[in-house]
């Protein structure tokens, strides 16, 4: 038998190092993870056998067997599921194929809780190395003749080769327990672990000790089919751990049965923490589809809306045919009804949770709100409910606010819901475009999620109040309460319609020519000298930035440069142009005003050399 020695993928080596060199209070979870993997392997074979019955013809009853050899200090976990061939062993046990793994691993250090890390990747096999110094795997894929052996001490390499002493199908994992892990060679300890963590597994689990007869360890019934009154919170939690390959407590669970034209049962969980790949392009939801308790697939995009991809659990229906193919699932109207029904139920439960426990819901929204907002433009049926559910930060509210609460606080004369978009909430709070709104006491919503730029385009208004970006068009602040007094103060201070200011604006417009769309006096600025805004009807500044980052936009829209007539710099420039007329010095000043506005907007200057020259020249004149 030829053997080959291979190295683990770098990320696997780092993961194993964390597992092996960290301390855990719940090392027993290794058994839960291995049993969970064995259960998944049986589910996959059961589904494959629907179209290839010969795969299970000689052994139709699925099972998971634990064998304990106290003398050799080994524990074996065997299943007669789908099994693995050579390629499967290398891919599943030698690499972490999950998208985004490398980036996530870069953020880790050896002090992190390895159990949570394992759960993030769904690779519970590696938890074996918390209790074993050597692990051997023998597996034969259903329908194939050749069996394969995989052996490793978890220190960077593994050996793979052909196996002789192998099961007819399925996988046999043998753990060579460490000297200090003798507790896991105790049959009573194993019984307790299985009863605690794996009683819900719908496949019989047995334990054989030496030459004794095997004993059954679990009830082997699908938990979602049982009445809620018969299921404890601990059992629900352990099923969540199994189905989600997670280690945290679920934030919320929903166990329900839908009856009527279509019937289905759901047991769904919302995780307490955000999965690391929630926004990765290859992301998938974590809900498994069953038909009459038979696993069909965990990769059915039509089952759950993308904006609920954080859900974990199962949907079991009576109405789909058992032999339904993946292709038929893509266009099945029953799945569309299930999908819509699940979305309605989840959004309804979230609404109740938000009303009952606002503090807990705010934590949930911080983790998953950006995903839920995708549903505002994706799901017409739940759009109104999601809009009411949405939470936002603002310039005046403590914590988060709803749109309804925002509307209730609107100023007299205010007829729009104002918002500003940017990459970071704290940075956009310092935007010069907000100055006039702050002076008037007008609340502005802070949109810091990229999705905000997209859902806002599909919503014309909320309760009759239109949405308006403070970085687009005129500010419309003049008609909001207290305007008369402000206007009079402005006239006394700067002189509304001052010919010198008008001349300065005309000069700046002429000087900048093709660089800006227009130059105008600003109503929104109170402290800053200048700012850039999008003209009414033009693409919003932040949306343009996002589209460029994703190579969805090549050109830039010209912006409007707004000048604050009350600012001391603008006053000085207006006075200079009134006394001396246009000159090179004022041309440099016009360029610096635009550069300053670009810097405030977080843009890269198109000509840093020219900016440095203009700035040096003006500073030199000021010091002379």
TrEMBL record:
Please provide, in alphabetical order, the Gene Ontology terms of the cellular component aspect for this entry: cytoplasm
Q: Name one Pfam family in it.
A: HATPase_c_3
Its name, as the record gives it, is: Chaperone protein HtpG
> What is the stated purpose of this protein?
Molecular chaperone. Has ATPase activity.
Q: Where in the cell is it found?
A: Cytoplasm
Q: What is the lineage of its organism?
A: Bacteria, Pseudomonadati, Pseudomonadota, Alphaproteobacteria, Rhodospirillales
How this chain assembles, per its entry, is: Homodimer.
Entry-linked SUPFAM superfamilies: ATPase domain of HSP90 chaperone/DNA topoisomerase II/histidine kinase, HSP90 C-terminal domain, Ribosomal protein S5 domain 2-like
- Where is each Histidine kinase/HSP90-like ATPase domain found? 26-181
Q: Which HAMAP family did the record assign?
A: HSP90 (MF_00505)
Which family does the UniProt entry place this protein in? Belongs to the heat shock protein 90 family.
Q: Quote the SMART domains the UniProt record gives.
A: HATPase_c (SM00387)
Which residue ranges does the record annotate as region A?
A: 1-326
Q: Which gene encodes it?
A: htpG
Q: Where is this region: C?
A: 546-624
Which PROSITE patterns does this entry report, sorted A to Z? HSP90
The record's listing under InterPro entries reads: HATPase_C_sf, HATPase_dom, Heat_shock_protein_90_CS, HSP90_C, Hsp90_fam, Hsp90_N, Ribosomal_Su5_D2-typ_SF
Question: What is an example of a GO molecular function annotated in this UniProt entry?
Answer: ATP binding
Question: Which keywords, in A-to-Z order, does the entry hold?
Answer: ATP-binding, Chaperone, Cytoplasm, Nucleotide-binding, Stress response
Looking at the record, which segments are called Disordered?
478-498
Binding of ATP, residues: 33, 37, 79, 84, 92, 99-100, 120-125, 171, 326
């Amino acid at each position: 038998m030829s053997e080959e020695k291979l190295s683990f993928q770098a990320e696997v080596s780092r993961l194993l190092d964390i597992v092996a060199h960290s301390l855990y209070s719940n090392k027993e979870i290794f058994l839960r993870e291995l049993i969970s993997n064995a259960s998944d392997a049986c589910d996959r074979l059961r589904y494959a056998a629907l179209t290839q019955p010969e795969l299970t013809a000689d052994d139709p009853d699925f099972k998971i067997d634990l064998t304990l050899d106290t003398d050799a200090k080994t524990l074996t976990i065997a299943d007669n599921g789908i099994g693995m061939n050579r390629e499967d062993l290398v891919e599943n046990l030698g690499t972490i194929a999950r998208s985004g793994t490398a980036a996530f691993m870069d953020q880790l250090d050896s002090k992190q809780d390895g159990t949570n890390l394992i759960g993030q990747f769904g690779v519970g096999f590696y938890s074996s190395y918390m209790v074993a110094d050597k692990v051997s795997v023998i597996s034969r894929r259903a329908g194939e003749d050749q069996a394969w052996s995989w052996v490793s001490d978890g220190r960077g390499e593994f050996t793979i080769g052909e196996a002789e002493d192998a099961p007819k199908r399925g996988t046999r994992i043998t753990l060579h327990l460490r000297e200090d892990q003798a507790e896991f060679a105790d049959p009573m300890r194993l019984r307790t672990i299985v009863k605690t963590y794996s009683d819900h597994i719908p496949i019989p689990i047995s334990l054989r000790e030496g030459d004794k007869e095997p004993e059954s360890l679990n009830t082997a019934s699908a938990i979602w089919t049982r009445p809620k009154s018969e299921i404890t919170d601990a059992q629900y939690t352990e099923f969540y751990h199994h189905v989600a390959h997670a280690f945290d407590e679920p934030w919320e669970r929903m166990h329900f049965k839908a009856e009527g034209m279509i019937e289905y049962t759901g047991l769904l969980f919302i995780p307490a923490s955000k999965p690391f790949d929630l926004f990765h392009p290859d992301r998938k939801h974590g809900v498994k589809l069953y038909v009459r308790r038979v696993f069909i697939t965990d990769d059915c995009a039509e089952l759950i809306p993308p904006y609920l991809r954080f859900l974990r659990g199962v949907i079991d229906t009576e109405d789909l045919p058992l032999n339904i193919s993946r292709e038929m699932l893509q266009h099945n109207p029953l799945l569309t009804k299930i999908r819509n029904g699940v979305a309605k139920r989840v959004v309804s439960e979230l609404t109740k949770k938000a009303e009952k426990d606002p503090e807990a819901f705010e934590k949930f929204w911080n983790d998953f709100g950006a995903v839920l907002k995708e549903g505002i433009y994706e799901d017409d049926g739940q759009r109104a409910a999601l809009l009411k559910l949405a939470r936002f930060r603002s310039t005046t509210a403590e914590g988060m606010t709803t749109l309804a609460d925002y509307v209730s606080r609107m100023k007299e004369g205010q007829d729009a819901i104002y918002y500003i978009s940017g990459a970071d909430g704290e940075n956009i709070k310092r935007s010069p475009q907000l100055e006039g709104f702050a002076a008037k006491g007008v609340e502005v919503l802070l949109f810091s999620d990229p999705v905000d730029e997209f859902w806002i385009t599909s919503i014309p208004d909320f309760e009759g109040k239109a949405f308006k970006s403070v970085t687009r068009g005129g500010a419309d602040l003049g008609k909001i309460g207290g305007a008369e007094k402000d206007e009079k103060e402005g006239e006394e201070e700067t002189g509304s319609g001052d010919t010198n200011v008008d001349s300065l604006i005309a000069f700046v417009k002429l000087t900048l020519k093709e660089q800006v769309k227009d130059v105008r006096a600003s109503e929104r600025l109170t402290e800053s000298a200048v700012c850039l805004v999008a003209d009414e009807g033009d693409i919003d500044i932040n949306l343009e930035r996002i589209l460029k980052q994703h190579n969805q936009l090549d050109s830039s829209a010209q912006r409007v440069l707004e000048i604050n007539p009350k600012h001391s710099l603008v006053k000085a420039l207006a006075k200079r142009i009134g006394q001396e007329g246009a000159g090179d010095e004022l041309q440099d000043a016009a360029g610096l005003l635009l550069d300053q506005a670009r810097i405030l907007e977080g843009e890269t200057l198109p000509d840093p050399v020219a900016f440095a020259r203009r700035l040096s020249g003006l500073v030199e004149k000021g010091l002379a």
